[in-house]
Amino acid sequence: MTTKIVVSLPDEQVAAARRAVSEGPAASVSAYIAGALAPKTTYDQLAALLADMAAESGPPSEEDRVWARRALGLA
């Protein structure tokens, strides 16, 4: 399902979206905007989940952080 809305954007962002359509990476301006918005939506949902987890269980301990960094290959 999709909903049609009206938004205001800076001219340079509109130009970038139209360029993406004319050059091929985006099927439409709507698709370009939806693609740009999707990662932000996912990030916001993850941030809300982490906030809920912290509210329920408290913030992660330093031991938890060390484990997570190792599990993600960051340490």
Description of the molecule:
- It is a single chain.
- The chain is an all-alpha fold.
- It has one domain (11-71).
- The chain contains 3 helices and no strands.
- It has helices at residues 11-23, 29-57, 62-71.
- The model has no long low-confidence stretch (mean pLDDT 96).
Please specify the SSE layout and strand pairing:
Elements: H1 11-23, H2 29-57, H3 62-71
What is this structure, in a nutshell?
The protein is mainly α and 75 residues long. The chain has helices at residues 11-23, 29-57, 62-71. It has one domain (11-71).
Specify Rg, calculated over alpha carbons.
19 Å
Class inferred from helices and paired strands: mainly alpha
Q: Overall mean pLDDT score?
A: 96
* Helix content, binned percent: 55-70%
Question: How many structural domains in the coordinates?
Answer: 1
Descriptive labels:
75 residues; mainly alpha; 3 helices
